[in-house]
UniProtKB/TrEMBL annotation, chains A, B:
Gene3D superfamilies: 3.30.70.360, Zn peptidases. Residues 190-345 form the Peptidase M20 dimerisation domain. One of its GO terms (biological process) is proteolysis. One of its GO terms (molecular function) is succinyl-diaminopimelate desuccinylase activity. One of its GO terms (cellular component) is cytosol. Keywords: Hydrolase, Metal-binding, Protease. This is M20/M25/M40 family metallo-hydrolase. InterPro entries: Cyt/Met_Dipeptidase, Peptidase_M20, Peptidase_M20_dimer.
Amino acid sequence: MEKIDQFIERNRDLYIKWLTDFCGIPSVAAQNRGMEDAVKYLDELFDTAFSIEPEKLQTSGFPVVFAELKGKSDRTLSFYNHYDVQPEDPVELWETPAFEPDIRNGKIFARGVADNKGNLIARLAALHAIQEVGEELPVNIKCIFEGEEEIGSLNLPEFAEKYAEKIHSDGCVWEFGYRDADGATQVSLGVKGMLYVELQAKGANTDLHSAQAAIIESPVWKLVWALNSLKDQNEKILIPGFYDDIEPITALDDEMLSRYRLDEKETLNKLGLEHFVLNLEGHRLKEKHIFEPTCNICGIVSGYTGEGTKTVLPSEAKAKLDFRLVPGQDPEKVLAQLRQHLDANGFKDISIHVTSSERAARTKPDEAIVEAMIAVAEQYGDKKPNIVPNTPGTGPMYELCQALGIPSASFGVGNFESNNHAPNENINVEDYIEGIKMIAALVFEFSKQFEKEGSVHS
Amino acid sequence: MEKIDQFIERNRDLYIKWLTDFCGIPSVAAQNRGMEDAVKYLDELFDTAFSIEPEKLQTSGFPVVFAELKGKSDRTLSFYNHYDVQPEDPVELWETPAFEPDIRNGKIFARGVADNKGNLIARLAALHAIQEVGEELPVNIKCIFEGEEEIGSLNLPEFAEKYAEKIHSDGCVWEFGYRDADGATQVSLGVKGMLYVELQAKGANTDLHSAQAAIIESPVWKLVWALNSLKDQNEKILIPGFYDDIEPITALDDEMLSRYRLDEKETLNKLGLEHFVLNLEGHRLKEKHIFEPTCNICGIVSGYTGEGTKTVLPSEAKAKLDFRLVPGQDPEKVLAQLRQHLDANGFKDISIHVTSSERAARTKPDEAIVEAMIAVAEQYGDKKPNIVPNTPGTGPMYELCQALGIPSASFGVGNFESNNHAPNENINVEDYIEGIKMIAALVFEFSKQFEKEGSVHS
């Protein structure tokens, strides 16, 4: 690996440029901005790096960029990433423009640099470095880069079903990855699922002078009452049946949770907070973080929200909610439960519009991809890797991997303060360079797992 | 009056131009736009119409434009109006730009044309017409035009105290006035009070990826729970003590309420609604509208409110609330009760910022100003005037009138679908011309009340 690592070091400026050029493209799927440019950029990069043109596999939404690189064994490792990013607002809180990547204090700042363009480019850079030093890839590689992860991967389940054979692999490196505050690499074995909905309440056909509020129904009050009916102040989600199907936590899960490290003090400090929700700490805090579902309000808006006073009775009110789900929960069933709950509580006229629906996923810790990843993380880090049974985040892992029998796990170039989905998103330059080396090492380590153990992992 | 009315008819284009020119000025106090231009316009109009320059009485905010015209008796009639208007948003719902007055289908459309530039200019036009036909004013006139009504007249109580003598009168024509759907003129004897507050909840020091929602407190959930604690689904305001000081409804009030007409079907039709709040109708509906306080959400905002999906845990949440108060309720006391209620329910960290605080006011129906107004409304309308004990709207009437012993009442050029505070605000051209005539007639009728009845009304 030394030769490859040295090559990566010598070419760090090139690989940083690959990344910052990519991050300069505002590929916000939610707003249909820069998506074609992002695909074009990937086309050019594959041409430059590997002299191939990736396929653009069409979906009902943005295409999946797909490429295969042949290796010497018949084993296949796949990389799942996405070329879309979150919107950049609140724009005014960015220190430098979100889509003008800026390197300062050893960090690269840009929307998407951590989530997930840094990982996507690091993987291509690793493959490039392996080939450039004259090594043959030990396994086949499949790159699966979608364009709708940040809007809920609505078309990916259909894609995964249609292209099940084409995208099949013996292990998948999932899109994200972070380091803890102490520098330890997180190895993540799964994701939470998600149901993302927009609720809308309507009142009169126009905004009214608020003097009318005594006799005209208010859609924003209705929405407030409806939201209040969903979760109580003890964070209990009140939708009947919501918790029923959750898979019990196994002894192995619980053991992993005990070993999983969450730096409470560092996290609170960084966020300017004095305590976690419900004053939780220790094992119970970790348990809620990793193993429990959420009901979060991502946004709410109604009426006059500008400066000063406006006395108005708004004509409509909207809220965006995300439910993070855990293994066993079916987003379709949760949606039906939500509708039923609203109807039963007098909110029949509040509409629900679904924008994302994904199941949770977890890979078992004895799979080749997991063991290879842990081995690499141990080689490259001076801290013991932090193994997370599933991250609290979401992605279409179930649909793309577990449902097709593909074990999946994840590490990557982000850090504990990467500010994903928030202003001033960033990664450390050194984590990025190290991340490239770790992916190169993982390709060989993954291959070794099969040589070592025969067909145990097949 | 015939000569004056004919003069008004002959000069209708002039008086319409006075109004549309004034409405072209975006005097939005909440945004400090066009306020100086509005004052300058009034200066020029007083110069054109009466060859006088009004005083600009300074306050801590925008000045009060004040002018006196001498009449032949020692009685004084005052006009209270405001030259500021509401913000124009939602801009996209206006058929023509809010500050480019447009006359179509017999209506003048512009922000502020009904609330309250139409009335302000109609009053000046009436005085102009009286003088132009060679008549002497029968009473002294005082014009009191403030610039902060739409932002809660925060500086008017201090102003009224300071200039109590200067602004004293025997009766005040209040700023607003409307016609019902059947064309009847509303004569209003009072206003509700108001407490307008902005509530703010804060969470982490930055927006976070919503995966964090399992363990980090959400300010928007906190705000939803806090709002929910303020009012239940039966419209009962839950703040302890809120209803305690309300003055009981007298037999006279109730009798007036019985005579007050609210066209339920027309109102519902116009608003595209099937029923009023709580399915109320008839006397109970009118009672709630006129005599009961409200707690309304004027606006709420937190997190991502754009198109599509963004999975974010917002770092703050804000709501704007107006409480419309009724006689007996003290906004300062309500504010203290609100603070105490939030504290007692676990919302100590939700901040309250007050932007408006006004008491309710009601004038007795046997005052000269009321009798004169009813007499004029009967002369000019073919429908019996609709007498409203107090309107459900708000203004600084208590501070400017009742607190100083000045009876006050109101009629004006608006209509039942004037869309005050809403897109496509308008008045009927004919109501405007008729309104000018009615103000001219009122000046004489008000004087007559004192001739007729000696000092009864003094």
